[in-house]
Amino acid sequence: MTSLESGRPGFLWAAPAAVFFGLFAIVPLIMVAVLSFAGWDGLSDPEFAGLANWKKLLDDPVMIKSLWLSVLLTLLGVWAAGRQRNRAVLSAIYFVPMLLSIAAVSVLWRALLDPNLGVPAQATWLFGDGNLFGMQASAIGVLVFVSTWQFTPLHTLIYQGAARAVPPVLYQAAQIDGAGRVRQFFHITLPQLRNAIITSMILMVVGGLTTFDTVLILTQGGPGSDTTISAYYMYQKAFKSFDYGSASAIALLLVLVSTLISLIVVRLSGYDRMRSTMEGL
Length: 281
What we know:
Layout: H1 15-35, E1 38-39, E2 47-48, H2 52-58, H3 61-80, H4 87-93, H5 102-112, H6 119-122, H7 124-127, H8 136-164, H9 168-176, H10 181-192, H11 194-209, H12 213-218, H13 230-239, H14 244-268, H15 271-279
Antiparallel strand pairs: 1-2
Helix pairs in contact: 1-14, 2-14, 3-8, 3-11, 4-8, 8-11, 11-14, 13-14
């Protein structure tokens, strides 16, 4: 029985996407992995360097700091863009930023928060000296706020789409059995939103770890290196220090960390675990 006769698509249907993914994802990843064990300035021929690039990263305080900062921004972003109350109202207010590019949003907020000509300069009673980019805490706060302002609508739509796909008959049956809204939420809505929750969390985790445009335009890693996250540090190593070997090692490390965290999220969000937890409530 052929795949068409059985009603299931064959491998050839996926071949174009597989070829595209292989050429533009797998092959570059392999090249980056190989380059992470070499020394290359972008002009001369690459030279094998063994584990020198990785040892350099482990001894680099800026790299260690950038990893912790990337995780911090990711956690803050996950919380801020999470399933908070009044989410629909927030999505209506902040829907427009979803139509803009990250660069455009960053340029906009950089102008609005400029310490000399922006809003902080006119409201020193609220912002102090007006330089929100002069301290690590306020600079991180700006990065988290701008990212949340732009991407909250996306995650809102993910949850809304998943919630609207829940069959109404499940709620009707629950009402007949005497279940209130709280029990309906934990026993019907939340389990039905499992895939949406996993998708949203993975998008936020990977997006937080690979944030680059916002940092480049808003803070440029400053003050000092206080907002130099891993993706921006990779850019500095590659295009400012011309150390493509170390930059490739950082890129491969980001891929490994993102994959590991994504797998952990999926594992901890297993249906059996969630179902047993809900039954225990």
